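Quick review question:
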């Protein structure tokens, strides 16, 4: 019995896929194969855009042009990736999406993988629901990865179920704007589904999946995320996985429709610029260029905690109750590589504020 879960946007969607595998199938049969991008935030991978097989050593051939990433694989410098460590800590096989040949290339990879695995089920998973966007929403930030996987899944000759976990949790399309698009509730995630991957959540930088896990554990409030400090409500809805209509989603998603026949990532990028007004890889290129000019400051514990007090006071005045370690790192002007050092400092000095995997901002200082 084999199952295939396609992590629509890469990054934290792959972690959520492991949660979903346990929630849907309860550990019966072999763990699902998770097909995902190697496309991490710049604090992990300083090279803009997604990684290709040539950016790794130690990959294993899985099916045709599809490679699996074992725990002992390594990204080729200067690239970085969370996938080898993820593969080492999860029971799932992690397979790599290579988008260099556009939607047609991903479609071909999917067909090869389906032919090889003969999976009992195929799920396309997106955390947050930006895959349900039209493309012109002003808050949309990262539509390209989702559009590519959506376009590919709609072209394979096999039934694919589209699942959206935690509508609104990616901080892009508000949950209320997605209510008429997400479809019916398929299941509610609980602590039981999160705890088996708790160790992964301790180090993985995904904010959306962290908030998905937090809401499944019963944490409620408003979480501030990203460098822009976006407020994301943590509600009962955040722990629900919905089943959306795949064909309706494609018809709504202008970018996915436009890139159906693309045969290169550059071609898909150009469609994103024309339809959405930007390419998220362009944003990464600009930010990466800026980051290279920023010196890494030495982390002084006492000064850092004073900065944290000021940040928390400001966030508290805006009604924020929680935040992520990534947000704190950027808000305090620290380098992305210092996130784990900062996390260790905060957990050792103020352990009661840690509501795994989020940082709690109390109502009073």
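Suggested answer, residue by residue:
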């Amino acid at each position: 019995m084999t199952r295939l879960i396609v992590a629509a946007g890469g990054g934290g969607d792959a972690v959520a896929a492991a949660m979903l595998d346990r929630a849907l199938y309860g550990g019966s049969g072999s763990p699902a194969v998770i097909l995902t991008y190697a496309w991490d935030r710049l604090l992990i991978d300083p090279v803009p855009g997604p990684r290709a097989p040539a950016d790794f050593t130690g990959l294993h051939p899985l099916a045709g042009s599809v490679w699996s990433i074992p725990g002992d694989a390594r990204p080729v410098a200067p690239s970085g990736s969370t996938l080898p460590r993820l593969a080492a800590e999860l029971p799932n096989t992690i397979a790599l999406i290579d988008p260099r040949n556009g939607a047609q290339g991903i479609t071909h990879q999917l067909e090869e993988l389906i032919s090889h695995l003969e999976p009992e089920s195929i799920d396309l998973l997106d955390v947050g629901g930006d895959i349900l966007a039209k493309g012109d929403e002003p808050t949309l930030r990262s539509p390209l990865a989702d559009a590519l996987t959506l376009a590919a899944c709609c072209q394979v000759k096999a039934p694919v179920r589209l699942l959206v976990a935690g509508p609104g949790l990616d901080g892009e399309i508000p949950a209320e704007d997605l209510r008429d698009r997400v479809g019916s509730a398929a299941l509610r995630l609980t602590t039981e589904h999160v705890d088996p991957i708790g160790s992964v959540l301790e180090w993985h930088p995904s904010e959306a999946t962290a908030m998905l896990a937090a809401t499944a554990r019963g944490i409620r409030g408003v979480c501030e995320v990203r460098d822009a400090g976006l407020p994301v409500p943590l509600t009962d809805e955040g722990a629900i996985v919905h089943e959306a209509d795949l064909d309706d989603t494609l018809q709504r998603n202008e970018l996915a429709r436009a890139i159906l026949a693309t045969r290169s990532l550059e071609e898909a990028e150009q469609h994103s610029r024309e339809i959405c007004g930007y390419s998220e890889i362009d944003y990464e290129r600009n930010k990466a260029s800026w980051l290279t000019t920023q010196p890494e400051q030495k982390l002084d514990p006492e000064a850092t905690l004073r900065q944290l007090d000021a940040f928390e006071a400001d966030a508290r005045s805006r009604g924020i109750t929680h935040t992520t370690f990534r947000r704190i790192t950027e808000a305090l002007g620290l380098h992305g590589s210092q996130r784990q050092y900062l996390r260790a400092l905060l957990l050792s000095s103020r352990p009661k504020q840690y509501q795994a995997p989020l940082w709690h901002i109390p109502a009073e200082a």
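Why it works: The chain has a mean pLDDT of 95. The longest strand covers residues 121-127.
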